[in-house]
Amino acid sequence: MSESLVTIRAARPEDIGAMAGLLEELAVVDEDFRTETSARLRGLSMMLENHGGRVILVADERGRIVGMCSAQLFVSLAEGGPVAMVENLVVARSGRGVGIGSSLLKAAEAWAAASGAKGLQIVVDAGNIPSLEFLMKNGWRRTERLRVSRTIA
Ligand SMILES: CC(C)(COP(=O)(O)OP(=O)(O)OC[C@H]1O[C@@H](n2cnc3c(N)ncnc32)[C@H](O)[C@@H]1OP(=O)(O)O)[C@@H](O)C(=O)NCCC(=O)NCCS
Q: 58-103, pLDDT tens digit by residue?
């Protein structure tokens, strides 16, 4: 696969099946994604229904979806403005290592800047060292914060 044949564009409803398949690949490295397929399909539909402050970007290789990531804005009181949370960044195993992940990240950064965000954040599974290395190579820096969560429904 060559990165030059890949276009980064906003996801469309007809991409949902392919994106759900990519999220299966994410489940291999991120246990948060070891959930029911129906939950992921529901989440993808919700993201696409309402475009306010959110986007899903896909890497389209001549009609085949080979990567994706999403971004959503939230207001950071510490930063005094919107910040983008980047999630669901994954490239199909067959397409890794040719720059597609970096292109998705750059597109998310451009979307965030155009949306007025002051910065971006991403949560990475602590054991996912390769993706940390990937982010460092793309100019991101590691913080000492830990994410703590609780399920209520
Ligand atoms: C992490 C991921 C998105 C990277 O996508 P990719 O298209 O393979 O990455 P790129 O080809 O754009 O690589 C960009 C740089 O990161 C480096 N990199 C990518 N994967 C790496 C890995 N596994 N280990 C070390 N460095 C890596 C590349 O060597 C490249 O550096 P270079 O420009 O000096 O050659 C992809 O490997 C993936 O989908 N992983 C599984 C899902 C995942 O971990 N998601 C969390 C992402 S935060």
A: 999 999 999 999 999 999 999 999 999 999 999 999 999 999 999 9
Residue nearest to atom 41 of ligand 1 (CA): 90
Return d(Cα 60, Cα 78) in angstroms, integer.
36
Q: Which domain range does residue 111 map to?
A: 3-137
d(CA 10, CA 12): 7
Number of structural domains (the chain) is 1
CATH (domain of 20) = 3.40.630.30
In the three-class reduction of DSSP (H, G, I as helix; E, B as strand; rest coil), residue 76 is classed as strand
123 in a structural domain: yes
Residue 150 domain flag: no
CA of 130 from ligand 1 middle (Å) equals 7
Strands laid side by side in the 64-76 sheet = 6-10, 54-61, 64-76, 81-91, 120-122
86 Cα nearest atom in ligand 1: 48
